[in-house]
Amino acid sequence: MPLKAVILIGGPQKGTRFRPLSFEVPKPLFPVAGVPMVQHHIEACAKVPGMKEILLMGFYQPHEALSRFLVSAQQEFKIPIRYLQEYAALGTGGGIYHFRDQILSGGAEAFFVLNADVCSEFPLQEMLEFRQRHGDAHSFVILGTTANRTQALNYGCIVANADTQEVQHYVEKPSTFVSEIINCGIYLFTPAIFQHIGDVFQRNQQELVLEESSNGWQRAEVIRLEQDVFTALAGSGKLYVYKTDGFWSQIKSAGSAIYASRLYLNQYSKSHPERLAQNKPGGPVIRGNVYIHPTASIDSTAVDHTCVLNTIVGWDSTIGRWARVEGTPSDPNPNDPYAKIDSETLFRDGRLTPSITILGCSVTIPAEVVILNSIVLPHKELSRSYKNQIIL
Questions:
Q1: Which of 65, 94, 122, 364 could be disulfide-bonded to 223 (CB atoms 3.0-4.6 Å)?
Q2: Are strands 390-391 and 370-372 parallel, antiparallel or unpaired?
Q3: pLDDT digits 0-9 by tens, 2-30
């Protein structure tokens, strides 16, 4: 069956919680477990039999780093990969509707839509097989997973028939508890989805005509799959949920990127053992699942003198001897199998929320200082210790 995949990568005004890291590189290209975040998606899509093309969709301006990545990814995965640039932020449904002809070209009978800011085992083949067992040739599938009752309120919540897994009710970020099954931001559609998105587009147009007092900033083309389409499709017999027990997490903040790296590194022992560092005679001691960038040089005695914990260090940064750079991890509760990472805001009650420490590119940390729970913007040379601060 001819298939395609669409990866929604957003744009520069998205991912603000990822700053200052997203100043230097678009968020989808930020390395997670040693490779660009979106490469994990591409690799999973390329493995699916019948995959004809992968489309990245967003509203980044043409970008040299993005172009280089697309060329190298095409060569590595031996599959056409293109970037489709939206003229504005059109929402998760508006973008694919705008480029529907590009998606359907070549006779694709079904296509995946994946949000770039998630990490997952990406059970795409399993979703295809699930759709063949459930529903009809025109049904759609949402990937779902289980969250705890409190955290479920932060996601799209799915109520499904226990026997058929048909979605009977869908609510995006409800104010009260609806379901422990949450939307993972990974979907399997057929071309029939465009009829349902088109209905929303027509309705938006009619409402804008009626709202003569409108300020003019609304666009009929801005369509959200979750609130505008799934809510309407629930209970119609066309929308199903495939629940995964595999790992899944959002990557909304820099802290969640560290957690996502750990999830992928754990998977590498099976999927990419060649990416994991190994203990070698005369080399540094490797503890746990570790990725070392090819440009990195690590001394065999690198166990003392400086401590870096729960921190992302930008390129070309220098950390002096006896310095301590440390942050507070925001990992899910290890005692709760359904806990998800909390997507904290940068500030709470007017104060910087304790989180991982982020050093931008070209930051110099002198000897014998402590940097704790802080964000350091690029090209800074620090002269003293800092705690819970954004260093501009």
A1: 94
A2: unpaired
A3: 999 999 998 876 555 666 666 667 889 98
From 55, 57, 114, select the one nearest 87 (Cα to Cα): 57
Q: Give the burial string for 237-255 (b: 16+ CB within 10 Å, else e).
A: ebbbbbbbeeebbbbbbbb
For residue 347, how far is the Cα from the chain centroid?
A: 22
And the tokens for 215? 């300020």
Helix residue ranges per DSSP H, the chain? 21-24, 37-46, 64-77, 91-98, 100-104, 124-133, 193-210, 231-233, 254-271
Q: Under a CB-based contact definition with an 8 Å cutoff, are residues 390 and 352 in contact?
A: yes
Q: What is the DSSP letter of 24?
A: H
- What is the sign, positive or negative, of the torsion defined by CA atoms of 153, 335, 116, 44? negative
**Dist. CA 36–CA 45, nearest whole Å:** 15
| CA dist., res. 83 & res. 66, Å (int) | 9
pLDDT tens track for 345-356: 677 766 777 788
Residues 6+ apart with CB under 8 A from 303: 284, 285
d(C-alpha 85, C-alpha 91), whole Å: 13
pTM over 0.70: yes
d(CA 266, CA 246): 12
Q: Is 122 exposed, middle or buried (0-12, 13-18, 19+ CB in 10 A)?
A: buried
